[in-house]
Design a protein that fits this description.
Layout lengths: L2 E3 L2 E3 L3 E3 L10 H5 L5 H13 L4 E3 L8 H9 L6 E6 L9 H13 L4 E6 L5 H13 L3 E7 L3 H13 L6 E5 L9 H9 L3 E5 L22 H5 L2 H21 L5 H9 L3 E5 L3 H11 L5 H14 L9
Parallel strand pairs: 3-4, 3-10, 4-5, 5-6, 6-7, 7-8, 8-9, 9-10
Antiparallel strand pairs: 1-2
């Protein structure tokens, strides 16, 4: 499957940088681990050499640190950059433009390829400003994150009334959340809106690298959200994913990603080690058959575990 954004082909997987930034809402706080700059640089270089040209970040990831790090890495590189505006008060005149200008400075670029409204607040007022910033050449394409069908429709309607359109949606999509997203995904397909899925691995819970006996760091956001009891419930799903991984000679973490691709979703996957890029490249070539897709979904539903982040 080929995807085009701004008349340019983008990789079939968007690479996320939530785990890159330190400090508040950074890697240690959210994931329970910190990553050195040289490790992240090696990770970026390896992924870029493998053809991953689409990188996602946000001012809130490490409170600007992730954008700064990515900005250093992309100098002289042919990449597509996605970042966001997270309104705190819903809407404040001029806030969108200020957010963009600060992100441009941290990233060291003159224009943002894909700019998101990070949460669907004050959609009409924010989208009017998004459209104006696009006309002024600060951003190329516009997206909405964490939106319902109704909110997506309102955003697109507002943008079209202001000479633009909604290009993309980015929502939580995984084997433990996909049922509530079915109608939204279909709406996007019917209306030529790219659909990006984040937390496809549920911050590692579906990667096959963690279990009840090998749990997340206790003092971390993901450790608190995904307890040992949940791991017990999803163990049959993890076991089957491991079987499929052995069949296709890929890492178990790639099976949920291959499943998402089979649904017409563009995965958003975070990378923190160079070897993860190699693993992801192999996984993207994995094509699951209909029976395997159905069994993964059945096991996920039978687990009774449904994931929904507090911001959704």
């Amino acid at each position: 499957m080929k995807y085009i954004l701004n008349k340019k082909e983008i990789s079939t997987c968007m690479i996320g940088t939530w785990a890159w930034g330190g400090g508040l809402n950074g890697s240690k706080m959210v994931f329970g681990k910190s990553y050195g700059i040289e490790q992240l640089r090696e990770t970026f270089e390896q992924a870029y050499s493998l053809g991953f040209n689409f990188w996602d970040t946000a001012p809130v990831y490490g409170m600007g640190n992730a954008e700064k790090i990515l900005g250093e890495f992309i100098k002289g590189k042919d990449v597509v950059i996605s970042t966001k505006h997270r309104p705190i008060f819903g809407h404040k005149d001029g806030e969108v433009r200020k957010t963009i200008e600060k992100s441009l400075q941290r990233l060291g670029v003159s224009c943002i390829d894909l700019f998101w409204l990070h949460s669907p607040k004050s959609i009409v007022k924010n989208m009017v400003e998004f459209a104006q910033c696009q006309k002024d050449g600060l951003i190329k394409s516009i997206g909405l994150s964490n939106g319902s069908i109704e909110q997506i429709h309102l955003a697109d309607k507002t943008l079209r009334e202001n000479g633009s359109k909604l290009d993309a949606v980015q929502n939580h999509y995984s084997l433990l959340s996909f049922e509530r997203e079915a109608a939204t995904l279909e709406y996007c397909k019917q209306n030529n809106i790219l659909y990006f899925g984040y937390m496809i691995l549920e911050q590692g819970a579906l990667s096959g690298h963690y279990s009840e006996n090998n749990h997340f760091p206790l003092l971390s956001f993901r450790g608190m959200l995904f307890g040992k009891q949940k791991f017990r419930k999803i163990q049959p799903l993890l076991d089957y994913a491991k079987q499929l991984a052995e069949k296709y000679s890929v890492d178990p973490s790639q099976i949920p990603i291959a499943w998402a691709i089979s649904k017409g979703v563009i995965p958003l996957v975070g990378l923190t080690k160079a070897k993860h890029g190699d693993s992801l490249k192999a996984g993207l070539a994995t094509i699951l058959d209909a029976a395997e897709v159905a069994k993964l979904e059945k096991l996920a539903c039978n687990s009774g575990v449904v994931c929904k982040a507090f911001w959704e």
